[in-house]
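User: ok so my PI wants both of these folded by tonight, can you help

Assistant: No problem, let's get them done. Here's the first:
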Amino acid sequence: MVQTPRFLTIPDVAEILNTSAAQVRALLFSGDLRGIKIGGRGQWRVEVSELEAYIQRQYARTDQLTRQGSPEHDPPVGG
């Protein structure tokens, strides 16, 4: 039985969110995404539950913007 890891690396998070490692670092530095630094080199790790919480917050934020009908937050036409 394969055990799901508790913590993800920055590349893991980037793959899940389909974004760049630099964007994940920006989310960590801004505090939008919670993570921890471990080891002497301060490598970042993100707990799976924190990533899920971040995703849920983004869905809630998107829902709120959609209800407001803000045109600058509309998805692009044709894409």
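One down. Here's the second:
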Amino acid sequence: MTMTYQMPQQRVVPCSGYATAGFVFALMGLSPLALILCGIAWQETRSGERGGHAFTVAGLVIGGVALALLVAAIALAATGVSILEALWGTNSY
């Protein structure tokens, strides 16, 4: 009597398009759009319905850091402080 061994079938979960798009937009510097798309992707990927949770987390982190830097640059520009002066404390006159 011969025994046959069957490999268990692996479940393939497709990657979330929102996660991929949010990650790409975060890399491009479009942080508000990236944060919105990654927020939508978080709902899909958290439950395991879709793959790409790592893309979602990376997009949120990159987008959040980029948005914080953008807000800081706008705040410095609004107060009349140059970014170089704020970083190095030297006058560029």
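The mean pLDDT is 86. The helical segments are 17-28, 31-46, 53-79, 83-88. Good luck tonight!
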